[in-house]
Amino acid sequence: MTLRRTLLFSLLGALALALMPAPHATSQPAHRPHRAPVPDHVPPAPTNETACNYQAPQDFLIRETFVVRWRMPAELQAAHRQAAARAIRYRTEHYGYFEGFGRRQWNAHTPSQNATRTRFMDLPIRVNEQLVPVLACVEEQLRSECASTGYQPHRLSGLRTRNTYHNGEVSNHVFGIAVDVDPTENTCCMCVAQWGDHPLCQREVESIYQRMAMPECWVHVFERFGFYWLGRDALQDTMHFEFLGDPDHILKSAGAPPQVAPAASPDDDTGTPAASGE
């Protein structure tokens, strides 16, 4: 009886081992993607027939000019924190006070109170009300200049009430001045590890434009109207456009934007260090 029981347990054990998946069959984690080259070429801008000014993003609002990284020398970190404070004050004064960044006395309203619902490329989106005319101009130009690409977005993301950046940064989405186009199809390969697992991020490419579904043409149109494409940033966030132009000179009727828009220098720190672990 003991021998039979021993044989039975041995057979059951062998069967269980046979049914277990082989070690090589388990999925392996994807490797960290390499940054894709960002071409410098920008095609000549056509004659502007829209109601909005062509304008460049204001340099002091571009993330790379103020983001703090721990590998930076202390002096550079201090300079970037001061630049970040200036950018926060400018965005607060123009778009609203977001709790935890800046000061309430710089703007009596929140970004949510200054936001409105509109439509862009037949899709709903909520943004700062000042962006409504410039998005209309971008759409007009997209439909004229990029129609041959056949690209039609399926999802947009605008204003957010929660900050999605970490380490002391604040996203332009909370100010209502950022637009994400088809987040699942246009990659952000260097944002977080799981996004880097996207099949397009795992491919070696000759250009960052090969890591998104959106046509290159869209990037150039947005950029002519004061938007900054975060595909040029270290994050390589190809879905993301943020308006960094002068909101007081969006329309031609308001006059051409100055070369450098004025921004008050902060008289004190915002109380939140801008830092990134990248």
Overview of the molecule:
The chain has one domain (54-254). It contains 5 helices and 6 strands, in the order H-H-E-E-H-E-E-H-H-E-E. It starts with a helix and ends in a 35-residue tail after the last strand. Strand 1 (115-120) and strand 2 (123-128) form a beta hairpin. Helix 3 crosses helix 5 (216-224). It has 278 residues and is an alpha+beta fold.
Task: Pick out its properties.
four-stranded antiparallel sheet, alpha+beta, disordered C terminus, 278 residues
In short:
This protein is α+β, with helices and mostly antiparallel strands. It has helices at 2-19, 74-95, 132-145, 199-202, 216-224; strands spanning 115-120, 123-128, 156-157, 178-181, 227-229, 240-243. It has one domain (54-254).
Helix/strand layout:
Layout lengths: L1 H18 L54 H22 L19 E6 L2 E6 L3 H14 L10 E2 L20 E4 L17 H4 L13 H9 L2 E3 L10 E4 L35
Antiparallel strand pairs: 1-2, 3-4, 4-6, 5-6
Helix pairs in contact: 3-5
